[in-house]
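Technical note accompanying the year-one report. For the benefit of new consortium partners, we illustrate the data format agreed upon in the data management plan: each record pairs a sequence with a structure-token string. No post-processing was applied to the example shown here.
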Amino acid sequence: MQEYLNNLTVFNHPLILHKVSHLCDVNTGSKEFGELVRELAMLMGYEALKDLRTKEIEVQAPLQKITTPVLAEDFTIVPILRAGLGMVDGLRALSPTARVGHIGLYRDEETLKPMTYYFKLPVDCADGPVIVVDPALATGGSAEAAIQFVKDFGCRNIKFMCIFASEVGVKLLYEKHPDVRIYAARYAPGPLNEQGYIYTAAGDAGDRLCGTVSYKPQK
């Protein structure tokens, strides 16, 4: 196995595979697309957050007091705008106390380089795990820049979660941030197209979430 794949976890759960297939379908409308992205984020978050620390507390159960575990730390979700916003609610469903930061990046259509227009994180997010989210890890430029911003803020326990991951993007993150684990629902080996998109993915996730573009065949 290639070394750069060591930091990649690809999910093989039947529910995830099923939802990703519908996500790719050009006939899936923006409302259903958003629901699928949210559901996938929640399913993937179950595994990606399995190492959260817990602590024991005492509660009054119906028959007696019991000592039982609860989360000992909050995590911070950092979506890369705008497409990453579609994954936030799925992760917050796992823990309503999760904090949310935002990183606004867009890709220059000529250079394919990420350009930053917004950055704000919770003041104490460096005290706990941070999970950066974006539906697609294609060229990797936006993800790499976002992770660097988060590191510069003082965060060290960082993960990256996407639905689609390309070989190009995984390689770049491994080179630039070998300490960051990547979680993906589908991995696409091989090159990207000329516009920097993954051939076997769902197109522009931000556009499909917002309904600003349609890939349906014209009648």
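Partners are asked to follow this layout when depositing records. Residues 3-210 form a domain with the Rossmann fold fold (CATH 3.40.50.2020).
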